[in-house]
Amino acid sequence: MEKTKNNRAWFLVLPVVISVSFSAIIPLMTVVNYSVQDIFGPGQRVWVGKEWYVDAVRDADLHAALLRNLLFSFEALLIEIPLGVFLALRMPAKGKWASLALVLIALPLLIPWNVVGTIWQIFGRADIGLGGYFLNSTLGIPYNYTLNARDAWYTILVMDIWHWTPLVALLAYAGLRAIPDAYYWAARIDAASNWAIFRFIQLPKLRGVLLIAVLLRFMDSFMIYTEPFVVTGGGPGNATTFLSIFLSKLAVGQFDLGPAAAFSLIYFLLIQVFSYIFFTTIRNIGRGDTA
Predict the structure, then answer these.
(1) pLDDT tens-digit profile of 211-233?
(2) Which superfamily does CATH assign the domain made up of 46-290 to?
(3) Of 98, 114, 117, which Cα lies nearest the Cα of 106?
(4) Sign of torsion, CA 118 141 81 102?
(5) What is the pTM of this model?
C-alpha cells in the first residue's frame, strides 16, 4: 500500500515565513520600488527607471565613501583577528580564572553601540576625557578628533578594535577548547615547541572558527554606522563618512529617497559580493593547506 505524505508540518514554518516577509522581503521590495522613482512627497512620484543607479556609478562622493569603508574593514580585520587569537591563547583554560576572564573580555560586547560611541566621544575629548587629556597633556601629542581627520580615523578604528576584538577572542577561545587533548599529548611526546603546536595543531583546527570571525567582522565593519555617527558625525569634513553615514545623510538629511534607495541596494549587493569573495578565498586556502 502506497504511503501518503503528510505536509501539515509545513504549517509550523508558516510563522517564520510571515515574520521574514514583514521584516525583510516587504521592506526590500519597498526599497526596490523607491529606487526607480523620484519621490517628492506622499503620492507625488515620477518614474525614472535606472537613473539613480547610473548616478551611483558616477558619484565621486559615493566612491570615496566606499574606499573609506574598504580601508577601514581591512585595517580592522588586520588587527582584530590576530589580536583576538592572541587573547584566546593567553586566557586560562579551566577554573575560576577562566570564568572571570570570559566575563571581563565579553563586557564590551554587552554595551549598546550608541553608548559605545558616547563613551569614546567623551573619552577622546581633551578637556574632560581621560584619553584626550593623557595624549595632549601627558604625552604632548596634539590630539583632537573633532578637527584632525587622522585623529578622527584612528579614534574610530581603536574604538572598533576595543568593541569587537572580544568577539573574535571568544570565538577563538571556543575553538581552542574544542581541540581534543590527545593532540597536545602527542605534541608533548614529540617535544614540540609552542610555535609548532600553534602552527600545526591550533591554527588548522581554528580555521573554520576564524572564517566565521572574518565574515562577521567584515560585515559588521563594512556596515558600521552608529559609533562613528555618534563620535564624529562623519567628520571632520568627510574623513569618517562611511557608506552608511553617506546614505543616512542622503535619505534623512536631504530626503532624496530615490537615490538613497538605489544606493542602499548597491550597498547591499556589495556586502554580499565581498562576503562571498572572503568566504570562497579562505575556504580555498584551507583546502590547499590540507591537500
Answers:
(1) 889 888 988 998 899 999 999 98
(2) MetI-like (1.10.3720.10)
(3) 98
(4) negative
(5) 0.84
